[in-house]
Amino acid sequence: MAEPRCVLICQNRSCLNNSSAEVLTAFQAAEVPGVRVESSGCMGQCSSGPTVRIVPDETWYCRVKTSDVPEIVERHLIGGKLVEAKLNPRIHLRMEMFSS
Ligand code: FES
């Protein structure tokens, strides 16, 4: 059985200082069927937080604001497409290097 999708929102100090608690609340309020929303500890991307990681597809979004949440919900979680403008370039550049 496929692993259920989960949105992890960092609630450690640097991300909290940039309103990640409000981002967590916004994802929880969206209530997307089949998608869990969980708080997480530091994911090592503190300088570009709030960090949002979607598993199991391993999409990492950076500097996520509450105003970005509707687009991530509609486009990614419901529509299955990446929100390119919010991708964490440190993570996704690295993946592109290995996939070519
Ligand atoms: S504090 Fe959020 S990624 Fe480190």
TrEMBL record:
CDD domains: TRX_Fd_family (cd02980)
PANTHER family: TETRATRICOPEPTIDE REPEAT (TPR)-CONTAINING PROTEIN
UniProt-recorded name of the protein: (2Fe-2S) ferredoxin domain-containing protein
